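ARCHIVE CARD
CATEGORY: sequence design from structure
SOURCE FIELD: tokenized fold
FIELD CONTENT:
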């Protein structure tokens, strides 16, 4: 019964991460409705205001857990810096390389980064299920990237090779969002409620982005469409999305959460086709199918035997997270 309960808990966490990924997948398309707003301003308003809203909504549990957060201030600061760097690199990558390629590279590299962090720092062994899912997901994102890159360099609206390469490079930098996934998960598994952990990490990260917003955010108030895009980005994908992601991190490891977030580039690619008007070759659609297969492997029901095997894969002496039972506690 204990194993079945943990299996259901992991399933709930996976669903929360998937829901967050769907919301995140809309950001690239939403940004195209404010073409006069630079990527730095888009990133700063999205994650900056979204992070400050998270901190405001989680003020009570954050204050109650302030001593424990101060004791882990290094982890909090690492996560906050990652929160600040990620959106600036991510939206710049999409502006230079296109919505699909920028999203695919940024999100597709995160599972590997997260797995390396957990393996080196937490000494967590990677399960065969995760490795199979990661292989399918990364192969799918690679196909998406290749298909979109080939299309972007063909036709009248082609992007320069230098711009594409710079966009891909910034996408790799954005993949370091695995650091804030790991930092938030580490805080949660130490017994800090997910709302307090996410509020502290994203609130501090939002503060770091305020100067960028003040320096670049002028175009956001020049028209109602630009302002609407900024409000949408802050409230829906960033605030609501990361609340869901925080709940998910209370139930699944950061490496699993970042692998599940591979749904985001698939959603972004489909929206880029349906809304923005980008075309997706057969290889791209094949990549989306592989990403869906990756998600199916990760979210398949887990029996008690599988849960026990995953528990064995935990590092010796790993703390049992109090927040797993009540991710929204506080």
């Amino acid at each position: 019964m204990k194993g079945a309960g943990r299996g259901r808990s992991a399933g709930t966490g996976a669903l929360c991460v998937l829901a967050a990924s769907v919301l995140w997948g809309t950001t690239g398309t939403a940004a195209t409705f404010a073409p006069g707003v630079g990527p730095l301003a888009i990133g700063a308003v999205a994650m900056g205001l979204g992070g400050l809203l998270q901190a405001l909504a989680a003020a009570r549990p954050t204050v109650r857990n302030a001593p424990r957060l101060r004791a882990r201030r290094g982890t909090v600061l690492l996560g906050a810096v990652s929160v600040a760097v990620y959106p600036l690199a991510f939206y710049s990558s999409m502006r230079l390389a296109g919505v699909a390629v920028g999203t695919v590279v940024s999100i597709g590299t995160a599972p590997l980064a997260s797995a390396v962090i957990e393996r080196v720092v937490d000494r967590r062994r990677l399960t065969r299920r995760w490795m199979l899912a990661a292989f399918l997901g990364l192969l799918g994102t690679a196909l998406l990237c290749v298909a979109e890159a080939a299309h972007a360099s063909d036709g009248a609206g082609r992007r320069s090779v230098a711009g594409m390469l710079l966009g891909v490079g910034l996408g790799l930098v954005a993949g370091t969002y695995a650091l804030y996934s790991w930092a938030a998960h580490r805080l949660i598994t130490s017994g800090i409620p997910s709302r307090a952990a996410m509020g502290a990490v994203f609130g501090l990260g939002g503060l770091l982005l305020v100067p960028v917003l003040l320096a670049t955010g002028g175009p956001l108030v020049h028209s109602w469409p630009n302002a609407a895009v900024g409000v949408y980005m802050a409230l829906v994908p960033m605030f609501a999305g990361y609340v869901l992601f925080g709940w998910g991190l209370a139930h699944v490891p950061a490496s699993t959460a970042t692998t599940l977030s591979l749904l985001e580039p698939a959603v972004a690619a489909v929206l880029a086709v349906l809304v923005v008007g980008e075309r997706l070759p057969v290889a791209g659609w094949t990549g989306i199918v592989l990403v869906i297969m990756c998600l199916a492997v990760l979210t398949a029901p887990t029996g008690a035997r599988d849960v026990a095997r995953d528990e064995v894969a935990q590092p010796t002496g790993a703390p049992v997270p109090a927040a797993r039972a009540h991710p929204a506690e506080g």
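CARD ANNOTATION: The chain has a mean pLDDT of 78. The longest helix spans residues 224-249.
SHELF: design records, drawer C
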